[in-house]
């Protein structure tokens, strides 16, 4: 997560918005707009939903020694 690098939740949001603005100013060689999304940062999703093009928020399942799955985040 960006927190370790930037230090503050609000800094993460500003950083992602800046990167998103830059990405949206670019086009591919075929003339398509460049899209940008996030992965596995549900705590940021609400603040960034207006500027990101997609978000993938996965749930992971961890197997215990007995073989039963436990949802972890």
Structural overview:
This protein has a two-stranded parallel ribbon with strand order 1-2. The chain has a two-stranded antiparallel ribbon with strand order 3-4. The chain has helices at residues 3-6, 9-24, 42-48; strands spanning 37-39, 54-56, 60-63, 69-72. Helix content is 37%, strand content 19%. By secondary structure, it is an alpha+beta fold.
Protein structure class? alpha+beta
Query: Which strand order spans the largest sheet, edge to edge or round the barrel?
Result: 1-2
Report the radius of gyration as a whole number of Å.
16 Å
What are the secondary-structure elements, in order, as H or E?
Answer: HHEHEEE
Main β sheet profile: 2 strands, parallel
Number of domains: 1
Instruction: Give the DSSP E fraction (strand runs of 2 or more residues).
Output: 15-25%
Enumerate how many helices there are, as a single number.
3
Number of DSSP strand runs: 4
What is the distance, rounded to the nearest whole angstrom, between the alpha carbons of the first and last residues? 13 Å
Q: Uncertain segments of ≥5 residues (pLDDT<50)?
A: none
Overall shape: flat
Report the mean per-residue pLDDT as an integer: 80
Fraction in helix: 25-40%
List keywords for this structure.
73 residues, alpha+beta, two-stranded parallel ribbon, flat
Question: Can you describe this structure in just a few lines?
Answer:
With 73 residues, the protein is of the alpha+beta class. The chain contains three helices and four strands. α3 links the parallel β1 and β2.
